[in-house]
Specification:
With 430 residues, this protein is of the alpha/beta class. It has 12 helices and 20 strands. It has 3 domains: 3-101 and 204-260, Adenylosuccinate Synthetase, subunit A, domain 1 (Adenylosuccinate Synthetase, Chain A, domain 1); 105-199, Orthogonal Bundle (Adenylosuccinate Synthetase, subunit A, domain 2); 268-425, Alpha-Beta Complex (Adenylosuccinate Synthetase, Chain A, domain 3). Bound molecules: guanosine-5'-diphosphate (GDP), 6-O-phosphoryl inosine monophosphate and magnesium ion.
Amino acid sequence: MSSVVLIGSQWGDEGKGKITDYLAEEAEYVVRYQGGNNAGHTVIVGEEEYKLHLIPSGIIYPGTKCMIGNGVVVDPGVLLEEMEYLKEKGIHVTPDNLKLSLHAHMIMPYHKILDGLEEEKRGAAKIGTTKRGIGPCYVDKIARTGLRFCDLQNKVSFRKILTQNVQAKNEILEKLYNQKELLDLEAIYNEFMAYGEHLLPFIDDVSYILNDALRDNKKVLFEGAQGTLLDIDHGTYPFVTSSNPTAGYAPVGTGVGPTKINCVLGITKAYLTRVGEGPFPTELFDATGKLLSAVGNEVGTTTGRPRRCGWFDGVLMNYATNINGMTHLTITKLDVLDQLPTIKICTAYEIDGVKTTTFPPDLERLSKAKPIYEELPGWQTSTKGIKTFNELPENAKKYLKRIEEFLSVKIALVAVGPKRDEAIELEKLF
Ligand code: GDP
Ligand code: IMO
Ligand code: MG
């Protein structure tokens, strides 16, 4: 295959960073297509841990070309900090291994301020955003008032668009939020001109580069951020992010046609987690939930918030399989279940006394959903270090086979630890 879209099937943090890094051994290009630095993708190689928010996780593999597509919203200051962070770890990010789309929108200082103020205003109805300015930046993109990297190439038009934005946002800050401290046009202008000096060499037409690469049969991996249930259209609205993490957006967010996608790989935890607010039918509030949280080290990579934990939800996963047109699955964190005597899979919900296997993304119905479980015996032995499917304990094989059968999607990879080599490959994707 020459192109694989890798997506989060659940509520994010499924291990997309680790699997992207694993596949980067073969992939020649790794491309982010949506989201921004709300993402936190962890890659562990040997004893070194990398936490990436914006730069594709393929950057750690020498020789991989990384791209940030037009669908991503980029905080230029964070991007420069991430380059510095990688440099300290011996990875040099240069225009040879990273390209930034001309058409990607920039997260401006006022987007971050507004993200915080909007959350505060929502009070108990807060979304639990990462406060990185993601939502307000996408709002401006859709309102056609945003600033893109191509605008850094023309100081006159950059100043003009910025002036309009600063005036409009100051009005909101003053009149709606009673803020005393307002935006300083010159300070923002100077800050962004300085970013431009550093970033202009990275700016390019990512769409052309990728289309050429795909024409030459090069291997391209599209690295999704967030997850299907956080999708603005298909997720648990309004407790979602402001982009489309689902596979259909990979072509839009990079400028390649949908006919160029060969494979959609859904990254899926062997259980389920969620950070932030919103319904979660299989959430566990008992000792098992605490065990998953502790053994799985379930703390948010970006905000450090604890992740809520629960059982694998087959209803949600069937929905995610459809929405993404998933062709293959990766099950991560199987090792986190090693100690459990029994493991549950949710196969249906009961809503208002009626059994259903259809996932209702609307809040009212979803918050009433009571999971109906199937119980499987655990394996209670370590899966660490296992390299082949056959070496896995029998009950672990049965658990994986049951998931595969329930979703009618083939498992291509299983992860049994956070490190690069802690993976079992069942099918080669590239
Ligand atoms: P992402 O946002 O989807 O890239 O996932 P995160 O990096 O935010 O969270 C996944 C966490 O699980 C990270 O700390 C990974 O190092 C870790 N991880 C990934 N795969 C495995 C696995 O198979 N087993 C264990 N124990 N940890 C894993
Ligand atoms: P990765 O790529 C998990 C969640 C936030 C919040 C909601 C909206 O690491 O899987 P936002 O800041 O995007 O407006 O917040 O989305 N969220 C994530 N949860 N993993 C992520 O990314 C997330 N990115 C955003 O917690 O509930
Ligand atoms: Mg994450």
